[in-house]
Records
---
Amino acid sequence: MRDDDEDKDTDEDLDEDFPSGDGTADGEAVITCPHCGESIEIVLDAGSGSRQDYVEDCEVCCRPWRVSVHYQADGSADVQVTSLDE
Ligand SMILES: [Zn+2]
């Protein structure tokens, strides 16, 4: 009789919840201003939810962006910045 002991799956429980606030979610991102083309590091608030949409002003040219943040299940942030002007 052979004893097959391959039942040891390390199940990673990927909940709908993403790991906010425990240090694994991205806390910042570098984006490119759609107005002036500068690369700017922005601070993200992982505690505000996995999908965020807000308006922020460019610190270089002071024009507004629409920032869309989408956190992946592994805590990495997908950040898109578009011009608010149109
Ligand atoms: Zn700018």
---
Amino acid sequence: MASRFSSDVALTQGAENARLAAEGSDDDPVLLRVEDLRKEYRSGSQPLVLFDGLNLTVRQGEMIAIVGESGAGKSTLLHLLAALDRPSAGDVYCASTWLGKLTAGQAATFRNREIGYVWQLHYLLPEFTALENVAMPLLAREEPKPSAFAKAKELLCEVGLEARVDHLAGELSGGEQQRVSLARALVTQPRLLLADEPTGNLDNRTAEAVFGLLERLHATHRLTSILVTHNMEIAKRCGRTLRLHEGRLHEVWLRASGSEEGSPEASTASSETPGHPIVRTAIPGADRTGTA
Ligand SMILES: Nc1ncnc2c1ncn2[C@@H]1O[C@H](COP(=O)(O)OP(=O)(O)O)[C@@H](O)[C@H]1O
Ligand SMILES: [Mg+2]
């Protein structure tokens, strides 16, 4: 399959489609619902309560950024959404799946079918090729090798790495490794993409390129995406930005429909579900750029 990034026209069109796709719509069905989530850790003398009464509703097609101080619980939240961890109380529903009722085996199947996960550290297997790394989730679900490798190759072409298919993952640059992990996350055709500081280890220029790719993939793969980032320029290109602070999500930025510019006080209709208020607040350093 040819690269999707062959001309400036295609890029401009892709960026516009990505912008429109990131907004979602009030009419779109809810894909993810988090209800009264509580998470506490009991490893020290005092229990550490990370969330208490955290609520979130995400509509299909939305692209959401989550920002917050280090230690606020952003990674823990993504783990709970992916059924990688269990809440102390409360519920997470993804489409028709109630995560609380899944056994460990069912949770693994749920992740393999529904979730694409991108980590700050790519966690590629360095001694395997890019192709083998991307095919891995399909081989794990016992898809025959020829079809798994064909799909993996198609995804690697989509992320612009057709010339690196047979390179060992350990020999690729940081930006290329993150492209491979995006391809690996999407090869199973998930509905929900969870990305935990996917550009956090990259220089500004590479981070911009990887995020641009993520935006385009969000649109072309009709994803619902939740992205943890410290980069406010990147966050502002998402449809909504939520700040995780003191165990709750506070809406700090919502792009008005059809507009490039968002507002901290833009329309509330798409962000609130009755009984699930999201507190609005200004974010300190919101005009700061960079990857912190
Ligand atoms: N398994 C664990 N046991 C105890 N404390 C943990 C565990 N995992 C994370 N924490 C603590 O929870 C807090 C939030 O962690 P994390 O979700 O990684 O934050 P963030 O991603 O926002 O930086 C941190 O203070 C961390 O030390
Ligand atoms: Mg984290």
